[in-house]
Amino acid sequence: MNTKLLLSRNFSCLMAVWLLLITGLPLLAQTADTCHFRINRNYLNSYWHATACLATRPLHYSGQQWVVAGGLTALAVVAYSQDEAMLTYFSHHLNGQQASAIEKWGSPLGNGLVAGPLLAGLYIYGATQNDSRSRQAALAGAQAFILGAGAAFLLKELTHRPRPDQLNPPNASRWFGPFKGAGYDAFPSGHSLRAFAVATVISGMYRDRRWVGITAYSLAGFAAFSRLANNRHWTSDVVAGAAIGYAIGRGVLLFNRQQSEHCFTTQLSENGLGLVLNF
Questions:
Q1: pLDDT tens, 73-117?
Q2: If you write DSSP's letter for every residue of the chain in order, what string do you get?
Q3: Which range of residues forms the domain containing residue 181?
Q4: What are the tens digits of pLDDT across the range 159-192?
Q5: What does the mean pLDDT of the chain come to?
Q6: Is 29 within the bounds of a domain?
Q7: How confident is the model at residue 42 (pLDDT cuts 50, 70, 90)?
């Protein structure tokens, strides 16, 4: 897969989310009731601030957060040591028909074809029902998806790792690095990264509804597994993608909570002076 095709695929993923989200805009009335967590200039500008927040977040990790980060890194290293063994395992235990079926149903969970409609529906529901949490969850989920897609693209361009089905025989230790090996884009798994980024945001936004988090992470896990079924990724690609996606999702949650705490503004309404939460 060349760089042009990779750019096209990532662009399609981003547009799938954005086009579906903005379909809810005509449903919004221009009143004070609908200015909570809406798509506006402040929200679009927040992407720059969210990116900066994600980039500098490790500088502010607590001891516990470093333990989690270290554990996820260790898990990825262990997965890397078993990449070829896991490739052999899946090749022996899944036939072509099974692998294709898993990829068919799992791949859309990480490429925007499922996240887009779900986030758009959540946003429209929040807009029509005056539910600020639903709107915030949808916008934060879209932000995590888009920032995750950007991170995946950058890492793929820096590493240029061949996929298992791109070399004969497959070689898990082959990395071309930046500026070489165009078309090799295994690391990390973009599907796994995006799916876990969105799942982490949705789970965090609905912490009081445990089933939401269980469902979100289950779907993300299936999306990640589908990338292994048809030799599209090494196990370490998927594990690293899930870990990075989780980190991005947590960062987006933190950023949005900080924004919520600092974005109270006063608004003079017909009934007097009130507080409005602008996102």
A1: 999 999 999 999 999 999 899 988 999 999 999 999 999 999 999
A2: --HHHHHHHHHHHHHHHHHHHHTTGGG--SSGGG-SS-SSHHHHHHHHHHHHHHHHGGGG--HHHHHHHHHHHHHHHHHHHTHHHHHHHHHHH--HHHHHHHHHHHGGGTSSTTHHHHHHHHHHHHHHTT-HHHHHHHHHHHHHHHHHHHHHHHHHHHH-PPPTTTSSS--TT----TTS-TT---SS-HHHHHHHHHHHHHHHHTTT-HHHHHHHHHHHHHHHHHHHHTTSS-HHHHHHHHHHHHHHHHHHHHHHHHHHHH-EEEEEETTEEEEEE--
A3: 3-24+35-277
A4: 999 999 999 999 999 999 998 877 899 999 999 9
A5: 83
A6: no
A7: confident
Distance CA 126, CA 197 (A): 21
User: Higher confidence at residue 213 or residue 31?
Assistant: 213
Other beta carbons within 10 angstroms of residue 139's beta carbon come to 24
Cα dihedral 161/11/124/52 (nearest 10): 70
Q: How many domains does the chain have?
A: 1
Q: How far apart are CA 70 and CA 62, in angstroms?
A: 12
CA geometry: angle 185, 190, 193, nearest 5 deg? 140
Give the closest residue to 182 by CA, choosing from 154, 167, 162: 162
Q: Identify the band that residue 18 occupies on the pLDDT scale cut at 50, 70 and 90.
A: low
Answer whether residue 30 is part of any domain: no
The answer to whether residue 250 sits within a structural domain is yes
Amino acid in position 227:
R
